[in-house]
Structure formats: structure tokens, C-alpha cells
Design goal:
This protein is α+β, with helices and mostly antiparallel strands. Among the domains are: 34-102, DNA polymerase, domain 1 (Orthogonal Bundle); 112-154 and 189-231, no CATH class. It contains 8 helices and 7 strands; from the N terminus they run ααααααβββαββββα. It has helices at 7-10, 14-30, 47-54, 68-71, 76-82, 87-101, 161-173, 242-261; strands at 114-115, 118-127, 144-151, 199-202, 206-209, 212-214, 221-225. The strands form 2 sheets. Strands 1, 2, 3, 6 and 7 form a 5-stranded antiparallel beta sheet that branches. β1 and β2 form a beta hairpin. The radius of gyration is 28 Å and the shape is extended. The chain starts with 6 loop residues before the first helix and ends with a helix. Belongs to the mitochondrion-specific ribosomal protein mS41 family. Residues 158-180 are annotated as: Disordered. It is found in: Mitochondrion. This is Small ribosomal subunit protein mS41.
């Protein structure tokens, strides 16, 4: 049921009624609820990383947003005054920050073990009570199932040049290189294992997903790192002028083809 205007407003002159309505709208804005500011995550720790992940070259505007709180509190008008252009970029940024505020992220948004923007993923077997997992197969044991878990980075991080240089020099001189320490197996509690969104297991031990890179020499291990446009929602492109001009564009094309065929 539509709300009726107060009879007192209807008795006022037209300019006074318009001014009174504008005052009411201003009061509504003053009493608007305060937007909740989400906490940074290990994969998205700051403004620069957030803008890099959502893509569309918004990372170029990172200097215009001073803090994490400002990212989730600035209005569209304030973003415009800060120089975030064009308007579709502001709308896209505000759309993504509302998704993040509501816990909706892209691949890697739920990762806990991240170092220098790189997360290590591994295929591991965990106990399973599903009927389909009771029997053993060529790729898993009886009563087990394979999942992709996020573990502290051990082999996914790039090698440190400062540590690799002395070993290379010793090898050139003919001296035996020191034995490399073998990383201990990753221990975890099966109760704490949760599926990583956006990735899957293919060909028994390979991890696949957007932005996932396999680690050479380590089967069942992959890395996921922050890079430009990892979460980007790409814009569509018009085909034959779009829906409004499609018939016209195709008609002119057929006419031109007939002329060329003569």
C-alpha cells in the first residue's frame, strides 16, 4: 500500500513543498546506518592488493584512497572528487567492495597461510565417511578422500638469490655442495581441513583453477599469488553494434556483400 502525503504538505505552495521534501531527504541521509568495514584478510591485506585483484586497471588509483577504512566508506561522489574515473570504474569498485563486505570473494579469498602475496596449495588425503570413499583405488586409500588444502609456504616461494649464490660458487670450484635440508612434512588436523573455493583436482594429483600455477618438481603442489585481474569480472563486448543496432548493421553488411558479388 502506497503511503499518502501528509495533508499539511498538500496545502503548502509548490516551491515550499519541494524545499520541504529536499529537507526530508537530507535528514534520511543523516540517519543512514553506518556501513560495516570488513577486516583485511591474509590474501587481501591492503588497498593496493584489493584494487590489483579486482582488475580493470583500478590499481592505478590506489594512491587516491588513503586507507582501508576509506576504501569501504567513501561515497561515489567522494571517489569522483578523489579522481577515480570514469563512472563505470567507480560503480565497479563500489560493487566489488559490497561483495567483499558480505564475504563474497574470488579465488584465494579464504586462504589463511599467505606470505608475500603467495599461497601454497597441496593435495592431501583426509579420512572420509562417504560411501563412495570406502574402497581403495589407484590414487587414494580406503576410507580416504583427496582435498586441496592451504599450508604454510615451503616450496611455492621463489628461491632467494642471496642464498643460492654461495652454493653456485662452491659448485664451480669443485667443492661438494652442502646437503640441502629436507622440509619436514606438513602436519595438519583433519578436522580443520576445509575445501578451497575456486580450485579442483584433475588427473589424480594436479591442482587446477584460475591463477593456479603448478610447482615444478613437486607433484600435487601448486601456488596461488596475487596478480592483476585475478578476480576481475570482464566486461562484455558488443556484437554487430549491440542489440539496438544489430539488425541495421547486419542489413547494411548484406547489402554491401551483394554489391561486392556483382
Amino acid at each position: 500500500m502506497a503511503l499518502k502525503r501528509p495533508s499539511m504538505l498538500l496545502n503548502l505552495p509548490q516551491p515550499t513543498r519541494i524545499f520541504t521534501c529536499l529537507q526530508c531527504r537530507s535528514l534520511h541521509r543523516l540517519h543512514a546506518p553506518t556501513q560495516r568495514i570488513p577486516k583485511p584478510t591474509p590474501f587481501v591485506p591492503d588497498v593496493q592488493t584489493f584494487l590489483t585483484l579486482i582488475g580493470r586497471k583500478l590499481s592505478a588509483h590506489s594512491a587516491k584512497i588513503p586507507s582501508w577504512e576509506a576504501l569501504f566508506s567513501l561515497s561515489g561522489q567522494q571517489l569522483r572528487e578523489a579522481g577515480v574515473e570514469p563512472a563505470r570504474a567507480r560503480r565497479y569498485l563500489m560493487w566489488w567492495r559490497e561483495r567483499f563486505r558480505n564475504g563474497i570473494t574470488g579465488v584465494g579469498g579464504d586462504l589463511k597461510e599467505v606470505k608475500d602475496g603467495i599461497a601454497e596449495l597441496r593435495v592431501m588425503e583426509v579420512p572420509s565417511s562417504r560411501p563412495m570413499d570406502r574402497e581403495a583405488t589407484l590414487t587414494k586409500g580406503a576410507g580416504m578422500r583427496k582435498v586441496v588444502v592451504n599450508v604454510p609456504a615451503t616450496v611455492a616461494l621463489p628461491p632467494d638469490p642471496a642464498k643460492a649464490a654461495p652454493e653456485a660458487e662452491e659448485g664451480r670450484e669443485g667443492e661438494p655442495a652442502p646437503a640441502r635440508a629436507v622440509a619436514p612434512p606438513v602436519s595438519f588436523n583433519a578436522k580443520d581441513v576445509h575445501a578451497i573455493n575456486g580450485v579442483k583436482i584433475v588427473q589424480a594429483n594436479n591442482i587446477a583453477g584460475t591463477g593456479v600455477e603448478p610447482v615444478k618438481g613437486h607433484q600435487g603442489v601448486a601456488r596461488l599469488k596475487v596478480k592483476e585481474g585475478l578476480w576481475e569480472q570482464r566486461r562484455g563486448h558488443k556484437v554487430d553494434g549491440g542489440e539496438r543496432r544489430r539488425a541495421e548493421v547486419r542489413y547494411k553488411r548484406r547489402v554491401q556483400e551483394k554489391k561486392m558479388a556483382r
